[in-house]
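Tokens as discussed.
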């Protein structure tokens, strides 16, 4: 079995002391959205979380929203996308057959559009959030434009 750990998004929210446990309260923190690329045979790959995607880097206001951008200060570098990292490993993006999402916050799902052939799996609870009308509290975290090309997803328990 082969497992690659990927940094699929770097975020710099406020208050390094509160987030990272060191530094000052006004210094930016550093958070990384980790993705895992897993294969049992080297031919078919599973991606666990996708981080930010190529389109998020191109259209951040539209895909991530002003509030998320202001709160998290993401690094919008397409080299950090899962797609770019998969390709840098010599793996064709089409070889990513399945995507497993731990949750559907925008910094974990933006890259699903970079793997249009993959089947997306998520928990029944997250599937329900994806389908429910979004209240103000969730609107900064969930952006349906990121999963429009995969409108159904596959809920699993």
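Sequence:
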């Amino acid at each position: 079995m082969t497992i690659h750990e990927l940094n699929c998004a770097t975020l710099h929210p406020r208050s390094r002391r509160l987030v990272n446990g060191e530094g000052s309260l006004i210094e930016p923190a550093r958070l990384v959205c980790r993705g895992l690329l897993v294969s049992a045979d080297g031919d078919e790959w599973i991606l666990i979380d996708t981080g930010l995607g190529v389109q998020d880097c191109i259209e951040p206001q539209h895909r991530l929203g002003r509030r998320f951008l202001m709160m998290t200060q993401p690094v919008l570098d397409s080299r950090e996308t899962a797609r770019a990292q998969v390709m840098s490993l010599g793996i064709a993006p089409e070889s990513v057959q399945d995507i497993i999402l731990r949750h559907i916050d925008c910094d974990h799902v933006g890259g699903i559009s970079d793997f249009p052939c993959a089947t997306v799996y998520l928990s029944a609870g997250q599937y329900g959030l994806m389908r429910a009308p979004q209240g103000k509290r969730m609107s900064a975290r969930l952006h349906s434009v990121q999963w429009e090309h995969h409108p159904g997803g596959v809920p699993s328990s």
